[in-house]
Amino acid sequence: MTERTVRPPVRPRSGRRPLPPLIFLLVLAVAAGAVWWTVVRQDRERQAAEAAACETAEAAPPSLDPATVSVRIFNSTDEAGLAQRVADEFGARGFTVREVANDPTDRAVEGVGEVRYGAPGADAARFLTVFMPGSTTYRDVRADAVVDLAIGPDFVFPDSLATPEQVAETLAATEDAATGC
């Protein structure tokens, strides 16, 4: 007699197909990828905005004691006595006025005025521009921290100078911007 080996019974097919679960997993993966991409993009935008704000805060004028800023006032206009009136105003605000004269340079000053400075006087120059909005800056090669203020043809005394309230408001705004950096 021959022995037959017994085979295990064959299970009938359940009729389920693996395609719907695979589609669900694929859709879930695409959704997770989209969320991840959105989060990464928003984080990059936030970092760029913070970097721009910090750059602005670094370029903002520092809050200095006016007595520590030495300034020379030069008249680049045809109006006589204008430099002395501006120097008196800056002296009343606490600045150390070193010299008052007509502009000794050949630079053409346009607009309200020009703040000239060397590398050691960069902070003082940015601070001085708060007091004379609309003035431009010019960096030269001087080795000291003395800042020159050349009054331009569009300057109107005292309207072209910032009021003490405007100065305080501008300096407070720049200090607030710098705290986030």
Question: What would you note in describing this structure?
Answer:
The chain is an alpha/beta fold. Helices cover 43% and strands 15% of the residues. The chain has a domain at 66-179: Alpha-Beta Plaits, CATH 3.30.70. It is built from 4 helices and 5 strands, in the order αβαββαββα. Strands 2-1-5-3-4 form a 5-stranded mixed β-sheet, covered by helices on one side. The radius of gyration is 35 Å and the shape is rod-shaped. The mean pLDDT is 88.
What is the arithmetic mean of pLDDT? 88
Class per helix and strand makeup: alpha/beta
**How many strands, what sense, and barrel or not for the largest sheet?**
5 strands, mixed
Low-confidence stretches: none
Within the CATH hierarchy, at the fold level, what is the topology of the domain at 66-179?
A: Alpha-Beta Plaits
Could you give the count of β-strands? 5
What is the CA-atom radius of gyration, in angstroms?
35 Å
Q: Helical stretch count?
A: 4
Draw up the topology in text.
Elements: H1 19-59, E1 70-75, H2 82-92, E2 96-102, E3 113-117, H3 122-131, E4 136-139, E5 147-151, H4 164-179
Helix pairs in contact: 1-4
